[in-house]
Amino acid sequence: MLQSILIHCLDPVFISEKIAYTSVDRFISIEEVLENTITGVKGIGGLQTRGKYRKGLPKSPYQ
User: Is this model's pTM higher than 0.70 or not?
Assistant: First the structure.
């Protein structure tokens, strides 16, 4: 059974800051963005979204 990880309230701020201060001529990897977050890769969910929720990780025990 997978357990949900709650993200830290500042993680979205750190991600937004990294994106905002990166040059528009440069692509950044998800690993590079997550280096500065508190929860790291464990706080990531909603894979394959493309604007719509298709697959979320970790799985919710309420599904």
Answer: no
